[in-house]
Amino acid sequence: MNYYNIQVVFQEVPGEISICFSICGCKLKCKGCHSPFLWNEKTGELLTENIFNSTLNKYKGFASTVLFMGGEWHCKELLGYLQNAQLQGFKTCLYSGEEDIKYELQEHLTWLKIGAWNPDLGGLDSAITNQKFIEVKSNRILNNLFIKN
Q1: How confident is the model at residue 32 (pLDDT cuts 50, 70, 90)?
Q2: What predicted TM-score, i.e. pTM, was given to this entire model?
Q3: Torsion over CA of 62, 88, 114 and 69, rounded to 10 degrees?
């Protein structure tokens, strides 16, 4: 499982500081995608346990959430990283363009964003978006947290 970059982000999970791993190999190739460089699974670098753990250690006490932008197509590897993050005390989130995410992944997610990008409907900050930001445990849709009043 290759990653393109690792960033600390503030908007993707409301109220949380997230360590974001952008995973390569997205097969959806949505029209208007802001990250087409993630389509090729051979770009980026291999995400190793050492890289993952050293990144989490670096931001422990600052960041509260580990966020994966994609990666559900590497179910086994992603599952291991989600479990690892939880064991280290982090909340977890997956941003996916898919609609159906395997239950074994959902069991280890705090939040889940689903829905392919549709430029006519916009993202989570649009009242007409097809995308959903879900608190997994309660199954509550929290899109309202992204809408500006």
Answers
A1: confident
A2: 0.95
A3: 70
